[in-house]
Design brief:
Number of strands: 16
CATH superfamily of the largest domain: Aldolase class I
Bound molecules: 5-bromo-uridine-5'-monophosphate
Distance between the termini: 55 Å
Radius of gyration: 27 Å
Largest sheet: 8 strands, parallel, barrel
Strand order of the largest sheet: 9-10-11-12-13-14-15-16
Oligomer: single chain
Number of helices: 18
Length: 501
């Protein structure tokens, strides 16, 4: 790896913005023909941000900071039509609180016939806000119009400098360009988080005739290593009441009723290997959790009597039985595994499945079991993102496909196993493993983060905790601590909303 660490490292706001842009599909990969006729393997569609208010806000915040830091003096802000108009409005109206000017592409044939709308006087100095600068052509046209109206414009603030000669052309015309990102920063980010590989880097460099000889990457800190730091969707969590009313899944109805009754959004992962140890823990932990998760295939003395006792405890103590079996095979094999020696479909309320085998190998098989009252199984949790370091589910395309499978089959997919909120459908519950209040990682790839990150920032619903409780000397004390922290995190927003009303 030819690292150019430092040179192109974006700051925290930029990194946050780039991550959001990646998650919101601003960067599109494929084969595109640009306005210039050039072919490009990447297309940066900044207009995606009109649909994501958090992106529009972050971009406007970045543009505003650049303007302030530049110390350029100006009395008005001009948005270059049309793509930059929303940004210019937010920057002028909200952040910098200066008059907004709009330059028409053509003069109106009626009324004032003005080419420039807004509050200004001859001789005023204005700045320009633009989204993407390629050759600088549109900016020079706007500068010319402004000049003809007696306005002075020598500074342009843009989100992306595509490095296609715009900066140089503007400079020749006496116009300074300030950019939030240039192509190299964008590409260094994409390479650093493995969204593009070295070959894609080379293809982009060639197609856009860029001058970089080596792949440039910056160091991604431990916390940032994984792309799933922020939610995929802006559709925030609605209240439990609303979600209860929305969900048609009997399983989720049951889970939400347990959550409310027990003030708990906790699932305990009991990875003990003997039935005695597991049952002892279930008896003590049952009252505080909404679900108990087991791995049936790690239990050395697995028996039918074990599952009978487990079912009885679940019925009495009101929790969901979750077998984390992670199906990932043909539909036929999944069917055999559900009914095989462990008879999973008979005692588990919910199981996990990977999405890798594709929708046709998942949905019909599980639907058959879930709709059959002879089986206890009443929902599946689709694994959209794993908690492990370097997980291949960090490839966003994969997660998006998993989300699509779930969104379209909400009668059987009652939840996701995920790191961050990914679906806009709030009736699908987001279960999240990789939570520990006292440790960051184990020696075999697990990555843990705290409850606040998992529930408040990443907007998950149910915390899956294992060793944080089960390896502790005082497991029930720890369990209560996790329950309280997780429940406070989940209900905080709801309580805040109630307070505001
Ligand atoms: P831990 O002891 O808190 O690391 O236990 C987490 C449990 O969740 C454990 O049973 C794992 O098998 C399970 N898990 C996970 O940790 N990460 C994942 O991405 C998935 C499951 Br899927």
């Amino acid at each position: 790896m030819n690292a150019l660490i430092g040179r192109t490292r974006p700051d925290a706001l930029q990194r946050n913005l780039l991550r959001k842009m990646l998650a919101s599909q601003v960067f599109k990969f494929g084969e595109f023909t640009l306005k210039s006729g050039q072919k490009s393997p990447i297309y940066i569609d900044l207009r995606e941000c009109f649909g994501h208010s958090d992106l529009l806000i972050l971009m406007s915040e970045g543009l505003s900071s650049m303007v302030t830091e530049s110390r350029v003096e100006y009395s008005g802000i001009v948005g270059v039509p049309y793509g930059a108009l929303p940004h210019a409005s937010v920057v002028a109206g909200l952040y910098l609180q200066k008059p907004l000017l709009i330059v028409r592409k053509e003069a109106k044939a009626y009324g004032t016939k003005k080419l420039i709308e807004g509050l200004y006087q001859q001789g005023d100095r204005v700045i320009l806000v633009e989204d993407v600068v390629t050759t600088g052509g549109s900016i020079l046209e706007v500068v010319e119009t402004l000049k003809n109206e007696g306005l002075v414009a020598t500074d342009v603030f843009c989100i992306l400098d595509r490095e296609q000669g715009g900066r140089e052309r503007l400079k020749e015309a006496g116009v300074n360009l300030y950019s939030l990102f240039n192509m190299e920063t964008v590409m260094a980010f994409l390479a650093s988080v493995n969204a593009i590989n070295d070959q894609q880097w080379a293809e982009i460099v060639k197609a856009l005739n860029l001058k970089y000889e080596t792949v440039s990457r910056f160091e991604v800190s431990k916390e940032e290593e994984d792309l799933n730091v922020l939610p995929f969707t802006n559709a925030g969590r609605t209240s439990l009441q609303e979600r209860e009313a929305l969900t048609t899944s009997p399983l989720n109805h049951k889970i939400i009723s347990f959550m409310k009754k027990k003030s708990s959004n906790l699932c305990l992962a009991i990875d003990y290997t003997t039935t005695e140890q597991i049952l002892q823990m279930v008896e003590k932990a049952g009252p505080f959790v909404v679900a108990i998760k087991v791995h049936s295939d790690i239990i050395t003395d697995f028996s039918e009597s074990f599952t009978q006792q487990l079912v009885q405890l679940a019925n009495n103590l009101e929790f969901i039985i979750f077998d984390d079996r992670k199906f990932a095979d043909t539909g036929n094999t999944t069917k055999l595994q559900l009914t095989g020696p462990f008879k999973i479909a008979e005692w588990a309320d919910v199981v996990t499945t990977h999405a890798v085998q594709g929708v046709d190998s998942i949905v019909p098989v599980f639907r058959e079991f879930i709709n059959n009252p002879a089986y206890r199984l009443s929902g599946v949790l689709l694994i959209a993102q794993l908690s492990t370091k370097g997980s291949l589910t960090n490839i966003h395309e994969y997660t998006k496909k998993a989300v699509q499978i779930a969104d379209e089959n909400r009668d059987i997919v009652s939840g996701f196993i995920t790191q961050t909120r990914i679906s806009e459908f709030s009736d699908i519950l987001n279960w999240t493993p990789g939570v520990n209040l006292d440790a960051k990682n184990d020696s075999t790839g697990q990555q843990w983060r705290g409850v606040e990150q998992a529930i408040e920032i990443q907007q998950n619903d149910i915390v899956i905790v294992g060793r944080g409780v089960t390896s502790s000397k005082e497991p029930i004390q720890q369990l209560k601590r996790y329950r309280q922290t997780a429940w406070e995190s989940l209900t905080k927003e709801e309580n805040e909303k109630i307070d505001h009303n």
